[in-house]
Write a structure and sequence with these properties.
Elements lengths: L1 E3 L2 H13 L3 E3 L4 E6 L6 E8 L2 E13 L4 E7 L3 H10 L7
Antiparallel strand pairs: 1-5, 2-3, 3-4, 4-5, 5-6
Amino acid sequence: MRLRLSDAELSALNAYLDQNPDCERLSKREAVLDIYDCDPPVSMNFVFVNGGIGIDGAFELNYSEADDGWYLGERIEDAARVRALLEAAGALGGA
């Protein structure tokens, strides 16, 4: 799935990723971001493309008390939901 972003949103997203300890930059163009401040928490892998981001995968996160860790749950396939999650986290600026 692809999410179109303005230049301002792309700039805000890059700044957010650079300061977020729950982000791992895999390359200059690719990142994995976990957002724990939503219910349920989510994890997404995306690539910066011309005019936005291509989302390679977005998943709800589930917690296992037995394993004391997070694991990937249901896949998120709605671009509008991914945008709303990024906006709510303040990753696109303005929040």
